[in-house]
Specification:
Number of helices: 8
Order of helices and strands: EHEHEHEHEEHEHHH
Largest sheet: 7 strands, mixed
Number of strands: 7
Strand content: 15-25%
Distance between the termini: 50 Å
Oligomer: single chain
Helix content: 25-40%
Shape: globular
Strand order of the largest sheet: 3-2-1-4-6-5-7
């Protein structure tokens, strides 16, 4: 936490993480170790967030004890979200632990191409709005949700979240502030095609894992 008063240009980033053992279930028929993918995604996402100058604090909303050592490695704080089912309830709970004076951003954990530059560009664009979000590359989901205060909660992640966030009055940054720098922040990975497209753009943890056939194998 910064000494003295935290300026409104600083952000607390919340990353919701469900159990790694059951994560990326949609890839289970294509990859032999989907939990390893989820872990690599999280490593790359947290590394990018930790390198982003605008970020004051990283909070991970999770009840999975295996996430703790990953969080510590990147200077993140674990917020136990037990009793707060679903991503929206979990991040709303975690937001209550944000340092006073910071804006709040929710970043999903399956962004293997996220970079500090793309996150910085998204946060700076969101700075102009009380509530904003970043639609995924398909244009139906959401990869980030940003707000100036707790009063804007809860977000509306889930099926057709882009439409839900638009309906609540949040600004769609992909439309209002088109910027090629934010594109890596829009590319979540739920399928094999999404993951393997442009493999050179993957973060280091995910890239190494994808290239190592001993760890990631297509099931026969």
């Amino acid at each position: 936490m910064l000494d003295g008063e935290v300026t409104s240009r600083r952000w607390t980033v919340i990353v919701p993480v469900k159990s790694l053992a059951s994560a990326k279930s949609r890839m289970a028929e294509e990859y032999s170790a989907p939990a390893d993918l989820a872990r690599a995604f999280l490593e790359d996402v947290l590394a990018a967030i930790a390198d982003t100058a605008e970020v004051e604090q990283i909070l991970i909303a999770s009840r999975d004890p295996s996430v703790t050592h990953i969080a510590r490695r990147h200077g993140a704080q674990i917020i136990d979200d037990s009793g707060h089912e679903g991503i929206n309830a979990a991040v709303t709970w975690a937001a209550g632990f944000a340092p006073a004076g910071t804006r709040i951003a929710v970043v999903v954990s399956d962004l293997p191409r996220l970079t500090s530059d793309s996150l910085s560009a998204a946060l700076n664009a969101a700075q102009e709005h009380e509530v904003a979000f970043l639609a995924d590359a398909e244009g139906t989901g959401t990869t980030m949700w940003m707000a100036g205060s707790l009063s804007a909660f809860p977000p509306h992640f889930g099926a057709n979240s882009r439409a839900a966030h638009t309906a609540m009055g949040a600004v769609d940054l992909a439309l209002i502030h088109p910027d090629p720098r934010v594109e890596p922040a829009r590319r979540d990975a739920d399928t094999l095609d999404a993951l393997t497209a442009d493999p050179s753009t993957l973060g280091p943890h995910t890239g190494r894992l994808v290239q190592d056939s001993r760890l990631i194998q297509v099931n026969p």
